[in-house]
Amino acid sequence: MNHSIVTEFIILGLTRNPEIEGLLFVLFLCIYLVAFLGNMLIVIAIMYNTSLHTPMYVLLLALAIVDIICTTSIIPKMLWTMLTSEKTITYRGCMSQLFFFAWSLGAEMVLFTTMAYDCYVAICFPLRYSMIMNNHMCMALLSIVMAIAVTNSGVNTGLTAKLTFCGPNTIDHFFCEIPPLLALSCSPVRINEVMVYVADITLAVGDFTLTCISYGFIIAAILRIRTAEGKKKAFSTCSSHLIVVSLYYSPVIYTYIRPASSYTFDKDKVVTMLYTLVTPTLNPVVYSFRNKDMQAGISKWFVSLKH
């Protein structure tokens, strides 16, 4: 039963300075369009080219879809509040935004681990790769990703929806995120904090550890490559992957591992931008656009448009 007496929230956004807000609107609109169009291009290219219907590219397709959902659930509303004086969001709209964001957050973390495992099998067991990472295994892994993401989102959104919000209703953030909502609650949030902490340890810390272990084995395999050019290329790929993964996991762990009383929202807004906008923008460049097969697939799609 919904005990909330608040029917809408006021989102303060990134800044209250109108002059800076105008510049930020242009900046984040450009970044969002790059992120959206980049990930959409990956989705179209993989779906259009049957040669890319392999486990590795299916995982890239899933990552692109998750990034589109993540950014689209947050950024358009944020841009709208910057563009207009309408800074309110309905209670249901807030809970919906929270659900889709939490879903994409959980899905992306597990996907990073799944993709690291796929890379590990491809490099460490190249002759057995097609047997280990077949279509059935790929679908099974994606089902696990979906199940974990839905469970994480459902539990945390459900617990947040059960809280009592009796005012103030001003969210000191640029979207409906769990920490600022817990800070607004006038009912106990201990269970919520415990569940967020558990999710952070199991998903963020756990997945980051598994991802690092996978890349540890990958680096060990790379060191056995005899040619210097081969080592350089492999290290370049792995290092860029690890940088993006670290940019994602570090702020997520920092944000959710603390109690609500310790949140500093001015600083947290900047930290949150790393995993809500920066990483989804970098993912297409790091994981897809540097790949020759993806480049060929994108080129093939553009050529088909001309005809």
From TrEMBL:
Main localization (coarse): membrane
Entries under InterPro entries matching the protein: GPCR_Rhodpsn, GPCR_Rhodpsn_7TM, Olfact_rcpt, Olfactory_GPCR
Localization per Swiss-Prot or TrEMBL: Cell membrane
This protein's UniProt keywords: Cell membrane, G-protein coupled receptor, Membrane, Olfaction, Receptor, Sensory transduction, Transducer, Transmembrane, Transmembrane helix
Highest rank taxon of the organism: Eukaryota
Entry membrane topology: Multi-pass membrane protein
Listed name of the protein: Olfactory receptor 13G1-like
UniProt source species: Orycteropus afer afer
